[in-house]
Amino acid sequence: MYEKLLVAVDHSKATERVLGAARDLAALSGGEVWVLHLREREILPKAGGIVASDEFADAAQAQVDSAVGELTKAGIKAHGVLRSTLYGYAAREIVEDAKKCSLAAGSSSGPSPGSASAGAPPATTSTCPAAPKP
């Protein structure tokens, strides 16, 4: 039924509920879960191209690792992916990754300003690795 589920996580309160739903669906269907977190970053050309982010990489990785650990403890095959993206592009990247999955769900404190794909429904197609992009 659901071979590969993509769960996009952030630091919102909804993350725990979304992970719980993904865990239950994966347990029922025998599927695996891909936990994805995108760190939004800005390039500041007037500051010499410095990349700025309001999130520390360690905190983001800890959240992904924690989610994968919880799913694994529940007997679910889980994978974690942490990637960086430009500010305003997270929703687009999630939608693109969702097109490769059986089901996608996400927790969000709201769409990033300027996200043309914010609110787009998840796609339901076949294979999912939300693999790191080069």
Q: What structural category arises from helix and sheet content? A: alpha/beta
* Domain module tally: 1
Mean pLDDT: 79
Count of DSSP-assigned helices: 3
Number of strands: 5
| Principal-axis shape | elongated
**N-to-C CA distance:** 31 Å
What's the structural blueprint in terms of helices and strands?
Elements: E1 4-8, H1 14-29, E2 32-44, E3 50-52, H2 57-73, E4 78-86, H3 90-98, E5 103-106
Please explain how this structure is put together:
The chain is of the alpha/beta class. It has a single domain (4-106), classed as Rossmann fold. The protein contains three helices and five strands, in the order βαββαβαβ. The chain has helices spanning 14-29, 57-73, 90-98, and strands at residues 4-8, 32-44, 50-52, 78-86, 103-106. Strands 1, 2, 3, 4 and 5 form a five-stranded mixed beta sheet that branches. Strand 1 (4-8), helix 1 and strand 2 form a beta-alpha-beta unit. The longest helix has 17 residues, at 57-73. It is elongated. Residues 111-127 have low confidence and may be disordered.
Question: What is this structure, in a nutshell?
Answer:
The chain is of the alpha/beta class and 134 residues long.
Descriptive terms for the model:
alpha/beta; 5-stranded mixed β-sheet; 134 residues; 5 strands; Rossmann fold
